[in-house]
Amino acid sequence: MPLTCHSEHHPLRSVFLNEVTAAFLSEAKLEKEWKSLNYLAKPNLNTAKTEYDNFKTLLTNEGVEIHYLQTDQSLSIDSIYCRDASIATDHGMIICSMGKRGRLQEPFAHRASFEACNISVLGAITPPGTLEGGDVAWLNTTTLAVGHSYRTNEEGIRQLEQLLAPFGINLLVAVLPHYKGPADVFHLMSIFSPVDKDMAVVYSPLMPIGFRNELLHSGYHLIEVPDNEFETMGCNVLATGPGKCIMVSGNPKTEQALRKVGCVVHTYEGREISTKGGGGPTCLTRPVHRQF
User: Fold this and answer.
1) How far apart are the C-alpha atoms of 248 and 254, rounded to whole Å?
2) What CA–CA distance (Å, rounded) separates 49 from 46?
3) DSSP code for 131
4) Which of 72, 94, 119, 253 has the fewest other C-beta atoms within 10 Å?
5) Residue-wise over 180-194: b if at least 16 C-beta within 10 A, else e?
6) With contact defined as beta carbons under 8 Å apart, do 237 and 209 qualify?
7) Strands (DSSP E) along 191-231, which ranges?
């Protein structure tokens, strides 16, 4: 079967990860960085390793081939959230330009890893443009939704559009709200996670009206995350195939809503690797190929 990068819901076949031991590295590194990077609390390294191993097991059980980014000890602990530093397209990887100052070196590490694996690079977003992978999501093979946020600016979106226009790819821009301000981690995929071609988990109170209406007009069924499950990563759901997904445990109402519409749901304990740093399963993975 052919493969595509232009999907968030087809059967997931290949991902890059930044192993927790490479990102968190040591208790000393965690102690040094967690406050400045706005984590809710310092992650416990040993527990984080267990959580991450369990997360990887869920991926491999779904037949996902795991590749690892090259270890770079100069990167921050945020590098565990490896979706953000690159974007996968059928025409090559796009190297991002980070909007969070503590993560500026991650895109260079991604480029080096892709080149070492003979994966082509289509181009890169360059300053003053900023663009992070958590702000982009494929709606279909020719439409890429992009969040205009504190992490992704107008110049970054312009450069992305310029890179993709020759391939007939359209951007649907969603202007995100202020919410908790520039210091908080708030991406488009904080409030929008596709789980099938016409189904997505959403947190509507923070969704731009125009973007939400566009989804409804396109025939999307929206699975609403309740207020008390938003901060616990209820809206950050990784589809491993149509109607199959992985999510952080502790979000029973969202999990039940997914199961009610026929979705297969797998969960992992993610207090240390997800909740404290604000990065769920979509953030922990850089999907590369899905079966089309």
Assistant:
1) 10
2) 5
3) B
4) 253
5) eeeeebbbbbbbbbb
6) no
7) 192-196, 199-202, 221-224
- Residue 289 CB coordination number (10 Å): 20
Half-sphere CA count of 255, side-chain side, radius 13 A: 13
- Report which DSSP code applies to 208: -
- Please tell me the number of Cα atoms within 13 Å of 122 on its side-chain side: 21
Residues 6+ apart with CB under 8 A from 187: 84, 132, 134, 135, 147, 149, 151, 152, 176
* Contact (CB, 8 A) for 254 and 201: yes
pLDDT per residue as tens digits for the range 159-197: 999 999 999 999 999 999 999 999 888 999 999 999 999
CB of 279 closer than 8 Å to CB of 4:
no
Task: Report the alpha-carbon distance of residue 186 to residue 247 in Å, rounded.
Answer: 18
Half-sphere exposure of 129 (CA within 13 A, CB side): 17
Distance in angstroms (rounded) separating the CA atoms of residues 246 and 282: 9
CA atoms within 13 A on the CB side of 171: 20
pLDDT in tens, 246-274: 999 999 999 999 999 999 999 999 999 99
pTM for the structure as a whole: 0.97
Instruction: State the Cα–Cα distance between residues 142 and 288, nearest whole angstrom.
Output: 16
